[in-house]
Amino acid sequence: MVYLSDVKYLWSMKSQIISLQQEQQSVIKFNKNFKTPNPIPEAGIKQVIKLMQKGRLYRYNFSDNFTNFPQPYELNNEDEELATEVAKLEYEFSLYTKHKYVVAVNSCGSAIFLALKASGVNVGDKILTNAFTFTAVPSSIVHAGGVPIYVECNSEYIIDLEDLKRKIEVHPDAKFFVLSHMRGHISDLDAIKKICAQAGICLIEDCAHSLGAKWNENLVGHHGEIACFSTQSYKMLNSGEGGLIATNNAEFAAYCILAAGSYEKLYKKHLARPYDDNLFEKLKPHIPNFSLRMSNLTAAVLRPQIKFLDNKISQDRSRYNQLVQILSSVRNIYIPSPLEKVKRAPDSLQFNLLGLTSEQVDRFVQQTKERGVLMQIFGRDDNSRYYKNWQYSFTETPSLEKTESIISSACDLRLSSSFNVDDINLIGYIIKDSLYKILREDDYQDYRNGLTDYFENIEEVKSKYDTWVSFYDQEHYDNGWTVLLNHVAYTLISYLKKDALILDIGCGTGLLGRELNSYGFKNLQGLDISQNSLDRLRDQGIYKALHLEKLGETLSFTDNKFDALVSTGVFTRNQVPLESFEELIRILKPGGIFAVVLRVEDDEFYYKQIKSYCDINIWKEVLKTKITVLKSCNHELVILQK
Ligand SMILES: *Cc1c(COP(=O)(O)O)cnc(C)c1O
Prior knowledge:
The protein is an alpha/beta fold.
């Protein structure tokens, strides 16, 4: 051990602490477009051109022979010309969602409007609906003459059942409920169905953003009388504009077909309709034509997308899960979790920022935006998903405190299909980098209660860490050390495979391990001098094995064991002796990576030693970047390859 003499050497350098203002680590930006919609499959493009050449854009412009065919009609590939694109879309969509009847319209807003009219809403009727949804929902209610009664959401962005019961009690005359699966978050459907049945409430599901989501392994949209879907560009299917009504109720289906704009005998040109002509003839004179039909162009663009839908959903899920995993290391981020019976089909991510002031939340959105990561906060003045902006729907602003408090820090981030694994890593990195920088206190001290810069001997290092463990994490959030850890973990993606066997040297309370886990590195082991630190880590599942060992002494590992060694905050301030490297070299595989964070002012000490191994070709330096986090010193990440 060479502690005391090294310490003296180190302290002689204190006066040379390098100015923070020196070169900064460059700001990494994301440059793909968050708003890029999904492209239309080739088959859709070809079909649109064909339709335009023939001019057959109107949904009822198709073979009159068709009405003479046996009905119900089984569509097959040979009768290309018989039915139009819209009729075929309705038929194919009904096979996908497993509803008996489907009606295509020009938007989901129109679908909800028709669903309400079909179920008998009269002017002035009260309609229960989510306080957290998109403005199109209360707008459709108002369009149908209804008066929305808003139900609070809970922290999972779904219907607060207690508030639903309360609202039903306060408004016993509310006999309709438009349940919005906002952003694909699925409420407790069984409970809601039961509550509605007991209170005699007609349930309509707004599935605009939940196509493909499942409840108990079945597609969502079967708990209400009618389900309404959207094919607007930013939903699961993209036709610019479009909506689909799906139901098993023959009367409601007939109503929607007629009201959407099917007059005379045109209802016969529907393939996913009730085959009960008397029903149509009976209803027809009483139902206005609202002209909300879908055009053949729209349907032609949609049909091939249904074929790829399951594939898209599984890709969406993996993008979503990857980003959720990356953000899971941040304790200030809360990601709502679905109910047990739910399997979501998320094409966007929502999360809450915890413990941030409103000003910090806005700063976070602004700073991520400047780096190319686009998010919005639902509960903001110009956001159409904030109930206070729906003044057309009430005379007095409703009091919805729970929803208000949730959406005021709820971030919404679209996950474009064009984003690949690298893109998601970068988006996650930028989110964490920005957030960690905001969480760093402006007036932080580098270390308030933890280490002093002086160690008499290794026992002192050990005892300092043993005591420090209880406030270690907080201190490192406050001083921005997490910025550095996120940077190190993200950088390692370029150097290591996901299953690489990594030893975290000086794993402490697992802050770096958590960051590594979040980017998919799961094959981790931890080494530390502090028993207390290791005890805390025991049940956390961050490391697959923990080792109580002292650097500078012989380590208990076999030669060439690890694919990588990582170490932050250890080879600084003379905490470990220079001889430590000998054992690390021994346990590192040839070709393996040693990633170490040093203090720049230690360059003449640890870095000089590292370099001496480069000189004799033990390893080569593959990266050296400066990372500025603490006030009193600069750090650098050095990556060596054996
Ligand atoms: C988009 C959306 C709608 C409206 O769909 P349009 O097709 O644009 O009318 C309704 N509800 C929710 C939850 C939505 O996301």
